């Protein structure tokens, strides 16, 4: 039934099949970290040796019959995708027409289409939705305008540790929430427990929760993304897109379809772009239509490029740069804690988190902070130790790779509080050798988000 509906609804908008991608003999040149805007549940970090062509990904212990497929699996296959298990799904790491480095550069210069359908999409509604989300996150949920969103974190009640990072958007009648694929089982158990606790308190208003199973999600990223998306939207949607800024979302319609899509301006690469939530029956047809409408500017991109892009953009990878033992303050995410929340608290772990926001002279602060590093010599990978001049351990690397844009080795990790200022010289132990490194500001590559003008 779904197949017939897709053909009937979307065929008028399509202009034929895509030109097959050219075959290349390139091989991955980066160690791949797995994510989000996603990642395996946190566990003890271990250092391990990896060759340049080793690919690291989530759910590596999953057997073939346990790995699911997104609605775009066949499309990936037809474009020569190389698949890896990722967050419980078989996901493309790269394609036959571009190396990971070339795909990275293509995104920065043109536009790429990423399949993020492995992410978990939710709806929270009902009279208690605002208050419930305010309890489990530190964000100012009640002040989010309609069709606007915020990055946030789900928090453990006692410790303020991060259960998962998430994006929360307010729609007219509900909240749209996206969480990480590899945290799915943990997140579902957490949300079930939290909702049961919420509803056990008789004074709390009802909250309805729906997981959008099989809902498509694609990310159109790069400087040419707005032009490409405008080509396939109907006239009314194009006009709305011109006024859509970073962090905002809108309902839209693709030409010749009846599919109701949600377009959010943002993404995981640091470039201007959009994440598009699509009904299951229309996902493949709309992705194909986008590719077919911009054959010279748009290409599919996989997890390899997505990982190097997000690290250049200074974005965290849950299960590596963030985990259950990390608070938002330690993770350099204090900005997600709303001003009203700082004054009144009322969220999980508030006593710990609010105390961490205080100065050390007031009895607050943290012992470590997430920072960026520029490293000389060989690239540092997850698990590498950060040491001082005397060889004493003062931190650790959580993500690292050669930067295709900067032509330098970059990394993210944690360092002892007080040594976290940009320009601080340290050393990183790579393959048993100490390499010179310096604490650096993030993002490593300036973000190009389409932001609203700042009012004076």
From TrEMBL:
Gene Ontology annotations of biological process type: glycine catabolic process
Bias-annotated ranges (Polar residues): 50-60
Annotated catalysed reactions: N(6)-[(R)-S(8)-aminomethyldihydrolipoyl]-L-lysyl-[protein] + (6S)-5,6,7,8-tetrahydrofolate = N(6)-[(R)-dihydrolipoyl]-L-lysyl-[protein] + (6R)-5,10-methylene-5,6,7,8-tetrahydrofolate + NH4(+)
Location of the GCVT N-terminal domain: 72-340
Binding of substrate, residues: 275
Record-level GO cellular component terms: glycine cleavage complex; mitochondrion
A molecular function (GO) term: transaminase activity
Subcellular location: Mitochondrion
UniProt keywords, alphabetically: Aminotransferase, Mitochondrion, Transferase, Transit peptide
Quaternary structure and partners: The glycine cleavage system is composed of four proteins: P, T, L and H.
Name of this chain's protein: Aminomethyltransferase
Originating organism: Amniculicola lignicola CBS 123094
